[in-house]
Design brief:
The protein has about 325 residues and is α/β, with parallel strands linked by helices. It has a single domain, classed as Metallo-beta-lactamase, Chain A (4-Layer Sandwich), CATH 3.60.15.10. The protein is about 40% helix and about 15% strand. The two termini are about 35 Å apart. The structure holds zinc ion. The site of zinc ion has 7 residues, from helix 2.
Amino acid sequence: MELKEIAKDVYACLQEDRGIGWNNAGFVNLGGGLAIDTFYDLNRTKQMIELYKTISPTPARRLVNTHHNGDHTWGNQLFQDSEIIAHRLCAEEIEKEKKRNLPGLFQKWIQNPEVFPPGMKQFVVGLSQFDFSGIELTLPNHLIEDRFDLELDGYPCQLIYVGPAHTSGDIIVYLPEHKVIFAGDIVFWKCTPIGWEGTHDKWIEALDLVLSFEPEVIVSGHGPLCGVNEVKELRAYFEFVYSEAKRFFNEGLDPLEASKKINLGPYTDWTEPERLFFNVNRAYREFRNVEPWDAPFNALDLFSKCNELRIHWDGI
Ligand SMILES: [Zn+2]
């Protein structure tokens, strides 16, 4: 975990991407402190807060959740005295996870990964790098819609809703005078993106918005810091995968067969390239034009298919 000053008073809290759940966060030491996202478990979020204390001894006045995924929100309870800002749809998803006690379920799973079939087992082994004990899912207490503008000691900070793209409630945090964007999981760099709820068009629109601001530094949700050229590359990945998926959809192949036929070329080096299946499967949902963008999905089945794709590649 590394805290890096990327502009005056603006810090990225970076974790090396080691697979599912290894995200980045950030801290703006203005306006009483603005934290952007938490980490997946309490231990890692506590470490993050300790790093922030080296910059500012008082707890952050505000926390922004860029979206609902647990790696970005399951440390919320350590910000209980802060204003926790998120999009309304992000809060709805956290509420669903709270009802299912998802952290408790994950904690049970990681005790015994051996009982799961291969694809699922790989996912659970990935989760076992974290400790989900003690997590009480904590909902945001300030919900926003399309946009919310903050002024931090005279500096503008814009929270902009760009979903449904990676998930239903995606927000980016833009600091125009610092030329910094905290992109949440709208931007993955050197690791393969996963789309949950949302649409291809909205994700492209979100990336175009990021590019239009011409930021100097972009804090990706996963992977290293990047800039506009890397976002252009991510955009090209999505366009490539979408058009290839369309071609194979028209040929009548199922999403797994289509994924096996796609030659990822330069994107093979991104971590977990088998997440391609997620993106093809989501494209297929759009091509069928029957299910809504927030249609329920079976994540475990999707991870199993990713594993099948990985086994297929390994066997070539
Ligand atoms: Zn994430």
